[in-house]
Design brief:
It contains 8 helices and 2 strands. By secondary structure, it is mostly helical. It has one domain (2-188): Transferase(Phosphotransferase), domain 1, CATH 1.10.510.10. It has a two-stranded antiparallel ribbon with strand order 1-2. Helix 2 packs antiparallel against helix 4. The chain is globular and about 65 Å long.
Amino acid sequence: MEQLDKVKYFSEKRAQFYAAEIVLAVQFLHQHGILHRDLKLENVLVGSDGHCKITDFGLSKLGLFRHCKTRSMCGTPYFMAPELVTNLPYGQGVDWWAVGVMIYFMMTGHPPFYPDEEDMDGDSALERLEEQILKYEVEFPEDMSIPAISIVMQLLMKNSQERLGSTGSVDAVRHQPFFEGINWQALQEKQVQPPEEEKAAKKTEEGRHGFSKVLNDDNSAYIFNQTLFQGFSFMNNRVK
């Protein structure tokens, strides 16, 4: 999520790479009876080698293999599947829904369902979000490719029985045109070169936290103007 914040949205090539690695991770978890239940961009870390890792298994359910169901209400609202919102029994399909949300999020910079600013008011915002998840269709930007639109639509099928990945083999996900050109074996063995970081589309951090006058924008050694901190109870004068 931190990388996405820097550039607003990812190119399709970069989103494809991260999505493919996430698919491999979800496949592994499900084969071992692990339902993550809180897949979101904040829980996908990118290591120093450029490859993805899934983290935060605090809400995971163990022993839940294909066709098994559970009912505990949990997760992050923006990434919750309809069956979670309505408190119906659910299975592995909730993780595949979250994958669809993440692909859309990476390529647009925002989740497919979210209330307007005027609706962002506590419980009413959550109710509005749940209504969108249950009743609204996903809207796609004009420049999104047909393969990207197709896989998102199939992963965000409101009926879990029709959702991509929920029934049958995971190959149905891996063989989607969106993943054309992916060498899955090489990817699993980390033999595929990760995409380079893209230049920021805009300085999203500048002004948002008020740090722009104190810190440099690049990764060089930061130079602090100590006069900005006169009067504070502690100053580290060794900082240059």
